[in-house]
Amino acid sequence: MSEASQSVGSAEPGLWGAVKPYLEKESLAAFFVGVSSGFPYAMIGATLTTRLAQDGIDKKTVTAFTLAFLVYNLKVFWAWIVDGIRLPLIGHMGQRVSWLMVSGLAVMAAVVNLALVDPSADIGVTVLAAILVGAAGATFDIVIDAYRIETLKPYQLGVGSGMSQYGWRIGSAGAGALALVLADRIGWSAAYMACALFALPAMLTGLFMGEPKRHVVTNEKRSVSDVLASIIGPFTEFFQRSGALLVLLFILVHKIGDTLANLTFRLLFDDLGYTNDEIAIWDVGVGFWAYLIGIFIGGVAFTKLGLKRSVLIALVLMAFSNLSFAGLAASGHSNLAMAGAIGFENMASGFGGVVVVAYFSALCDLRFTGAQYALISAGASVVGRFLTGTTAGGLIESLGYVNFYLLTTVAAVPGILIFWIMMRTGLVDAAMGTAGEKA
To answer: In which domain, by residue range, is 77 found?
Structure first.
């Protein structure tokens, strides 16, 4: 086992050693930045899907809107700017903190802009507004992910990722539920404007905690060669590691089935006749608590079982969770079936989100945290998002929901097999980055 993989674990033995990091300030900071990370996703994800469906937009157009998420997958191309360019005027606040302020304000402005468009009047303008939210949200994510990884100590990566996922879920579910409730009472525009305030927790956390102690300054010089190094350095360092191509292949394919399924749930709920209030209760309410439980179990499992076993278990759970929605589609409008499907899927996603995010965080080199995590996180969902945006609506119409969710389960199998091979050949340890090593 490598030094990195040994370091990514509990600082103390026993159950208290697994729970204590949840109460430390670095983990709490990860929670609050996670809140702000989650809400832009909700604004162009499930919430926008519901808004478009209620405006009478057809399924193929609705699922095509998931292409707005592809902006998140392109963030790797400008992540080097966040890592390497010092902002004028407010740069003295620190590289990460100053970028938190600027990108947070950009997200708020983009969400307000999306609030002011009318999808039924001009779908093209709505597409552009959604893309702008995606671009601002992706930039915000680059900063937040780097801030989280550099703030957490190596032994806190599992629990810190869990706290970040807690925050992400609260931000996403909270903004989504608030938007649904307010939309029925004061309209979608006002609902979106209210949700823009969810950018504040990350900004305030940065001001309170200050610059991460593990941040490695790389922007002291600004020559042409320095700029070039900041652009290509994150890529060349990653691909020089043992087994880098197989690790990248795992990153690309491990979440295809999960992404395909998750971005179509609201279409299923709408076709089954669920009201906004029912969606808020069962999808947001039950899903919220199930996700929190899954996150806690994932954080403890990562610490006690280790990186490799916990990630493999997570991949299997996430694959089988899609079957529950095939069951819901077969049963029709049933609150009990919806609660069961949402509960299992969210527990599996919570567990998987913690252990997989912790693994991806540990893959980063601290000299290129923002750019490398952008590369990893973008690659993790690009294939699934592209397939959802281009084929999901047509597949649902031709196969039906039951067969569609069975297909998403099969699509998750390659990721499981690749990670098993990586475990057997030692590549999980060999490809680890400095973020997983003790200082």
So the answer is: 3-436
